[in-house]
Amino acid sequence: MKAVITVLVFVSLATASLSLENPLNLWLYHSETTGALLSGEFPDQHTVSLEPGSRSMWLWHLIQDRSAAPSTDTGVLGWHATAAGQAGSNSSEFVSSGGTAFEIFAQPLSWLTISQRTSLWTGSDGNPPSGFSPFHYGLEHGRHLYVDWGFVKAETGPLQAAMGRIPVRWGPGRFTQLMISGRAPAMDMLKIDLDLGEKVHFTGFTSTINSDSSTWLSAHRLDIKPYDKLRIGLSESILYTSDGVDLAYANVFIPWYPVQWNERVDDNAFMCIDATWQPLHGVALYGEFLIDDIQYENVNDVPNKLGYTFGTDLFSPEYGLGAVIEYTAVQRYVYSQREVFNYYMHDARIIGSQLGPDADRATASLSYIGFRGITAQLKGSYTRHGEGNVYEGWPDSVQAGGAFPSGIVENTTELSLDLGWYPENWLEVRGQGGMSFTGNTGNKADADSDNSWVSLELLLYKDR
Q1: Measured CA distances, 278 to 95, 212, 313, 444, 460 (Å)
Q2: With 0-12 CB in 10 A as exposed, 13-18 as middle and 19+ as buried, what is 184?
Q3: Cβ pair 353, 330 in contact under 8 A
Q4: Nearest to 86 by CA among 442, 451, 418
Q5: Residue 143 and residue 170: Cα distance in Å, rounded?
Q6: For the stretch 103-133, what's the b/e string if a residue is b when 16 or more beta carbons lie within 10 angstroms of its beta carbon?
Q7: Does residue 379 contact residue 418 with C-beta atoms inside 8 Å?
Q8: Residues 6 or more apart in contact with residue 225 via CB below 8 angstroms
Q9: Rounded distance between C-alpha atoms, residue 429 and residue 179, angstroms
Q10: DSSP labels for 14-80?
């Protein structure tokens, strides 16, 4: 009889400065198939368990280095700088981009931290290098100097409070999230996190969306772990317009739906449930269900406004292989509202899924950790988009029924390959390429189009 003893190595990943756009986040998602489940709020402090000699060991140490706060002694500033250059072609047109980002980090007291990142970039087609926030657009052409985030955070015991411009992403979706996707600009907010024992975590914030029009967003969520292999998230958000902060909505400890239904009129409320389950080692199943509007007393045949995502994530650290299959559908009129100023948007970007309403998408990806310093991802997707969009509002005459997606459906098939080479902690080389074919482009019958792209990017990192 032979006894086999497995010794695990634990790598702690505190994603303090790994931006939401960084491709390395894919591997954080993969990691919850074999270790601890991620929190519903992402990024999240996380521990990865690996067997000694695992092919992927070097990658987790790289993520650990990239995500850690810039090195600093208490009271002394640390900094982290990134420079990137990218060149390639897009449907036979040469494009190039370049940028730099500078983050400072300070810990004047053991319980108090300050973090701020500013980025400057330019692109011949108006787009930044990968890993830079693509949702920023200057008021004048070519103006791309932005404060990506900047906040002060205090932590004592189970309570953490933060104030400032904070990037947020909620939900387990690998390719999109329905309530807060992190694809809209980081919001200026007051935010609290509270651990209610080992099984329950609470998050809540109130933020400004547009100070000129006095538009606000409040959101809160409760993450519950009945046991180690299952996480359930319950969340609610509400976008509203007011001359000042509505203290009822700023109170993150009460449910807002009864307040909106009984005491307010046209505020845009959302409810959501999401979950991640690890039925087997190396397998994670996840889903998200969004309720924008549900007609429980429907007397005028008005449609519901719902969205949902479900998927599975498979990963083998031993062989360095990962795979994801995900499907998302967002019904027509989701994120819209009767009042234009209450559309669920921030700086012309949907706060939820960038897929938008009246659309669905199936995505499959295959990821690989090759020899030390090499990663690859092959991804394919099929997207359908009907004639509806977020700007059509919520007409009083709208009726249930009809096809989904609606009208003339634009359909896009896309295939892409992303290669990464990390010869040193301070150096990264990325190669991307892909092609897509679109039928009924712009929801016009028989208007077909295709696109192809290829690019090479060099990124340099330096910190202290």
Answers
A1: 42, 45, 10, 43, 36
A2: buried
A3: yes
A4: 418
A5: 30
A6: bbbbbeeeeebebbbebebbbeeebbbbbbb
A7: yes
A8: 37, 198, 199, 200, 231, 232
A9: 33
A10: --SS--TT-TTHHHHHHHTTTSPPPPSEES--EEEEE-TT-TTHHHHHHHHHHHSPPP--TTS-EEE
Across the 464 residues of the chain, what is the mean pLDDT of every consecutive 10-residue run? 40 58 88 87 71 77 79 72 92 89 89 91 84 65 82 93 93 95 89 92 92 86 94 95 86 86 83 96 96 78 89 91 97 91 89 95 95 92 96 82 91 97 92 96 94 94 84
Q: What is the pLDDT of residue 7?
A: 39
pLDDT for position 84:
93
Q: Is-contact 227 251, C-beta < 8 A? A: no
Residue 164, beta-bridge partner list: 151, 189
Region of 260 please: left (phi>0), alpha (psi -120 to 50) or beta. alpha
Distance set, CA 231 to CA 234, 273, 357 (Å): 10, 11, 27
CB count within 10 Å of CB 1 equals 2
Enter the tokens of residue 298: 């429907």
Contact 213, 345 (CB under 8 A): no
How far is the C-alpha of 313 from the C-alpha of 326, rounded, in Å? 9
* CA–CA dist 374, 66 (Å, integer): 16
CB 387, CB 407: distance < 8 Å = yes
- Mapping DSSP to helix (H, G, I), strand (E, B) and coil, where does residue 392 land? helix
Helix (H) or strand (E) run with residue 109 in it: strand 93-109
* pTM for this prediction: 0.92
pLDDT value for 310: 97
At 90, the amino acid letter reads N
At 247, the amino acid letter reads L
Determine whether 278 is exposed, middle or buried from the number of CB atoms within 10 Å of its CB (0-12, 13-18, 19+). buried
Complete domains list, the chain, with CATH: 9-463 (2.40.160.100)
